[in-house]
Amino acid sequence: MEIDNVLKTAWIKQLKADWKTANYHYFKDSMRLPNLELSSAEGVLGKWKGSYHRHLSISISLISNYKWEHVQEVLYHEMAHQYVEETLGIRGELPHGEAFKRICLENSIDPTATGNIQSWAEKRKNNSTISSENHKILDKVHKLLALAQSPNEHEAQNAMAKAHEFLLKHNLSLLDVQTKWNYIHKQIGEVGRRNPIKTIISALITRFFFVEAIWTFGYDQHKDQSGQVLEIYGTPENVEMAEYVYDYLQNISEFLWIEHKERKKINGNRHRRSFIYGLLDGFYNKLDGQVIEHKSKKLVWKGDPRLKEFYRRKNPKLVHSSSRYTSSSTDAYNSGITRGRSLVIHKGIHGEGKGKVKLLN
């Protein structure tokens, strides 16, 4: 597919912006901006050509066929090469020598983001794949969530509580094992504006589903559109589960608002946000109550220090922000609270659009 020059210019502009951000975050503003180029070389992800050339190139094929977060990984990899040569002054070492590996480790930069595009993409996919042992864990959770579709409210609530307790026990058992665990990060949802509803859901999955999350800059290179996107961190199985819950809560919120509107014969969407705020607050409070029950069983989750370290290395200069929301209707908010307290996460949704919930077989 032929890429027009306007889009190519936009990509170079975005690569420059990302280079400057990474130089500040990971390399203490120690480097000078190189000549950034797009490469049409087949199969090569990116390349740093130092000395008097000072060229850093990124594959057009990579940008055209993969998400921008993949492009950033390759950019950071090539920047690590630039740092080793220009800042540390090491030129005689092998390209992926000890200094390079150390810089990558210190900043959670992928040292393998090089060479053939297909090979790296496959390697990255395998790194994010859930192990067979952990697949069994998720299978059991899915079976419990299938029971949560029961029309009997008590059975449904009990099934979801058991699913969450099972996940808690699994994650607590990981903390007792001293082996190195595989952590990944993934951007979920569309690039766009952050709103209070998405912010509440992201806080909820961080609090109860064993991941770290951050709202970060996102870029859709096909539309040349920038905005914010949610990035989550954790083990592959926890990231998959958190994404699942994030999608579910966005879609079920819209579905239940439409249901509430029809039941109450409400015209328009004026109080939509108030209802959804209440729904999510009610669900949050319900999960918080389960935490108290877990404590009584001596199941206390204090977080995963290794995950926090991985997250901190990827985000060394965190800026915390808060999000406030106001309710336009006390009645709608209270109705949402009531509905949220009885909300259960069913087996399988990945949304088809606003107000639609797709159940998996």
Automatic annotation (TrEMBL):
It comes from the Bacteria. InterPro entries: DUF2786, DUF7168, SprT-like_domain. Transmembrane segments: none annotated. Residues 22-105 form the SprT-like domain. Residues 136-173 form the DUF2786 domain. Pfam families: DUF2786 (PF10979), DUF7168 (PF23771), SprT-like (PF10263). GO terms for biological process: response to stress. Residues 191-317 form the DUF7168 domain. This is SprT-like family protein. The lineage of its organism: Bacteria, Pseudomonadati, Planctomycetota, Candidatus Brocadiia, Candidatus Brocadiales.
